[in-house]
Amino acid sequence: MRVRVAVPASVANLGPGFDILALALHLQNTVLAEERPGDLTIDPSPGAPAELQDPEQNLVTRAYTLTCAELGVPATGVHFTCENRIPIGRGMGSSAAAALAGVLIASALHHAPWDENDVLDRAEGLEGHRDNVAAALLGGLAICSPGVPAVQLAVSDELRAVLFIPERPFATVEARKVVPAQFSRSDAIFNASRCALLVRALALGDHAGLRVAMQDRWHQDARFALMPGTEAIVDAAIDAGASGAALAGAGPSVIALTPLAMDAIADAMALAALAAGVPGDVTVLPVQNYGTRVDVSA
Fold this sequence. Notes:
Blueprint: E1 2-13, E2 17-35, E3 41-43, H1 59-71, E4 78-83, H2 94-109, H3 116-127, H4 130-138, E5 141-143, E6 151-153, E7 160-166, H5 172-177, H6 185-204, H7 210-213, H8 220-226, H9 230-239, E8 244-247, E9 254-258, H10 262-276, E10 280-286, E11 293-297
Helix pairs in contact: 1-2, 2-3, 2-4, 3-4, 9-10
């Protein structure tokens, strides 16, 4: 049996939606798993770091192995071929995509009786970011609320994500350490209201409303201080006409959302990064209103 999964990138938070909101983008990792005699083996993407070449360290195969243990089946006799397009350590959901791929492959190969929420729970348990995993699994804008299933909202096909992706990665665990554990009542009200405005703007295609809706008073200021240049890149995107802009997840990438003037926004973000001494690249991606695709063949 062969299982092929295509898992999209995702950007969480989008400003105020810390651990609540994430958006799927049209950039995918693909993993092909084929049953073969022998041990579990992996063929990573060309140029992959050493740890991704080790089945015990690669998150796809680790997720597969741990899910097999839960199902009570041996994690052997499968060869994985990975094609990684999502940048690692840049705030674009690469680890969520890897964990989700491993869980889905185990589920498909061993006929687990799980629905979407069961898969989401298991991938979150392995990777820790429910918002990214939900967006990757469901597509569109994922909304995660504790104690209830994640829900998906389709967004306008006109919307584009302009991303500045730094050359150097940054560990999410380090970026989470600087986020305040508590904040004021006024800031809580501010962020809650901005989340409501953000969901409304994306639901209605009110792109002009994103400028205010993507503001944040919780996590971004601390992360801007940790990642010099990122705040200037956000400001440059807004000044160039972006509907809204924010850190991509925990950073260090920056995302600007807009249906218009993509080239001007990309140029402004690149110039701001150059002025700040932050090497990297700018790319423009459509949103993806469908989630992970799983194909099973004999």
